[in-house]
Design a protein that fits this description.
Elements lengths: L8 H23 L13 E6 L2 H13 L7 E4 L4 H10 L4 E4 L25 E4 L1 E2 L4 E2 L11 E4 L16 E5 L10 E6 L16 H6 L9 H16 L2 H21 L5 E2 L11 E6 L6 H13 L14 E4 L6 H18 L1
Helix pairs in contact: 1-5, 2-3, 5-6, 6-8
The chain binds 4'-deoxy-4'-aminopyridoxal-5'-phosphate.
4'-deoxy-4'-aminopyridoxal-5'-phosphate (PMP) binds next to helix 2.
GO molecular function, one term: pyridoxal phosphate binding
Pathway: Amino-acid biosynthesis; L-serine biosynthesis; L-serine from 3-phospho-D-glycerate: step 2/3
Catalytic activity: 4-(phosphooxy)-L-threonine + 2-oxoglutarate = (R)-3-hydroxy-2-oxo-4-phosphooxybutanoate + L-glutamate; O-phospho-L-serine + 2-oxoglutarate = 3-phosphooxypyruvate + L-glutamate
C-alpha cells in the first residue's frame, strides 16, 4: 500500500504507527522473543498473523496439510459445533475420518480407548475448547506420531501449552487475545510447503511465512491490539497466571451449579467442563423458559450482559475469558445464589 491509496494525512500517520506496531510483533516472533505467552514456542515453529478468522483455518488446515501423506485423509474429533464445522469443510479436500462414535449431544469427550485413529492420516484435528457447548480438553490427545492440529480459538493463552506436542495450533484473536480480524497460526516448519495446488494464495502457509504474514495487507489495528493484550498477559504473570485465575473463576460458577440441587444444570460431564465457557440451564434440566428470561433480565439490570446461551443450544452461557476478573465471576455467583433463593 502507498500514500496515494490513503484518503487523508491523518490516515497515513495512523497507518505508519500501526505498521510499526505490527513490525515489532512480527520481529518478536522472528527472533523467538515472542510476545506470545512467555515465548514458549520452539525455534522450529513459525508464527503467522492471518485474516479469515477461525473459519478461514477450517479450510487452511486441510488445504495445507491433508496432502502431507498419500491418500489425503485426516482424523477428526468432533466434540461440538466448531470441530463439526471444521470436519465438514475438510471433506471438500480429502477423506475425513471421525475417530469416535458420533455423539448424540455435545456434552462429553468420548473415552480415548474408543477412538480409531488411522496411522496413515495426514493429521489428527480437535477443538481444544468448544465455545458453544462448553467442552474443553484438559489433556493433549495421543496420536502415535501423527501430526496433531488444534483449534484453540477460545482458550488460547488461558493456560500454558506445550507447543512441541503440536504440528499446528491456531486461534482467532477475538476471545482471549484481542479483537476480531486476526488469527494466530503457529506451525511446525516441516509442515510448511505441502499445500494443495488449489489452495488460495492468502491461505498458503509457505507464501505467508516467506512474506512475514504480509503477502496481503495485514489487519494492522487488530494485530496492534493483540500485541497490547499479549503484553498485558505477560505483565500479569503469563499463561500460568491466567490458568490460576481461570480455574478460580470457573470453579466459582460450577460450585454454585453443583450445589443448587438441580436448580441450575450444566449438561457437560465434569471431566471436560470448560474453564472458558460455562453453559447452564435455569429451573430444570431442559430449562424453564420463563425463569431463564427473568434470569437474563435481572442479570442485565445488574450490568451482567451476554449471558444468553448460543441460539443453537439455548439456556445460559457464562464466558469467562482472560478479560473477565475473579470479582466479576464472584458477582455472577452471588447473583445466581440470590436468584435461586427467590425462585425455587
Ligand atoms: N473456532 C472456535 C473454537 C470458535 O469459538 C470460533 C468462533 N467463535 C471459530 C472457530 C470461528 O471463528 P471466526 O468467527 O473467527 O471465523
Amino acid at each position: 500500500m502507498n500514500v496515494s491509496d490513503l484518503p487523508s494525512p491523518i490516515c497515513w500517520i495512523l497507518f505508519q504507527v500501526l505498521l510499526q506496531a505490527q513490525k515489532e510483533l512480527l520481529t518478536y516472533s522472528d527472533t523467538g522473543i515472542s510476545v506470545l505467552g512467555e515465548g514458549n514456542i520452539p525455534d522450529n515453529y513459525q508464527v503467522m498473523f492471518l485474516q479469515g478468522g477461525g473459519s478461514g483455518q477450517f479450510s487452511g488446515v486441510p488445504l495445507n496439510l491433508i496432502g502431507l501423506k498419500e491418500g489425503r485423509c485426516a482424523d477428526y474429533l468432533v466434540t461440538g459445533t466448531w470441530s463439526a464445522k471444521a470436519a465438514k469443510e475438510a471433506e471438500k479436500y480429502g477423506k475425513v475420518n471421525v475417530v469416535h462414535p458420533k455423539l448424540d449431544s455435545y456434552t462429553k469427550i468420548p473415552d480415548s480407548s474408543s477412538w480409531t485413529l488411522n496411522p496413515s492420516a495426514s493429521y489428527v484435528y480437535y477443538c481444544c475448547n468448544e465455545t458453544v457447548h462448553g467442552v474443553e480438553f484438559n489433556f493433549v490427545p495421543e496420536t502415535n506420531g501423527v501430526v496433531l492440529v488444534s483449534d484453540m480459538s477460545s482458550n488460547f493463552l488461558s493456560r500454558p501449552v506445550d507447543v512441541s506436542k503440536f504440528g499446528l495450533i491456531y486461534a482467532g484473536a477475538q476471545k482471549n487475545v484481542g479483537c476480531a480480524g486476526v488469527t494466530v497460526v503457529i506451525v511446525r516448519e516441516d509442515l510448511i510447503g505441502h499445500a494443495l495446488k488449489e489452495c488460495p494464495i492468502v491461505l498458503d502457509y509457505k507464501v505467508q511465512v516467506e512474506n512475514n504474514s504480509m503477502y496481503n495487507t495485514p489487519p494492522c489495528f487488530s494485530i496492534y491490539i493483540m500485541g497490547l493484550v499479549m503484553e498485558w498477559i505477560k505483565n500479569s504473570g503469563g499463561s500460568a497466571a491466567m490458568e490460576t485465575l481461570n480455574r478460580k473463576k470457573s470453579s466459582t460458577i460450577y460450585d454454585i451449579i453443583n450445589a443448587s440441587n438441580g436448580f441450575y444444570v450444566c449438561p457437560v460431564e465434569e471431566a471436560c467442563r470448560s474453564r472458558m465457557n460455562v453453559p447452564f440451564r435455569v429451573g430444570k434440566k431442559e430449562g424453564d423458559e420463563g425463569l431463564e428470561k427473568k434470569f437474563l433480565d435481572r442479570a442485565s439490570k445488574r450490568g451482567m450482559i451476554s449471558l444468553k446461551g448460543h441460539r443453537s443450544v439455548g439456556g445460559m452461557r457464562a464466558s469467562l475469558y482472560n478479560a473477565v476478573t475473579v470479582e466479576e465471576a464472584e458477582a455472577l455467583a452471588d447473583f445466581m445464589k440470590e436468584f435461586q433463593k427467590e425462585h425455587q
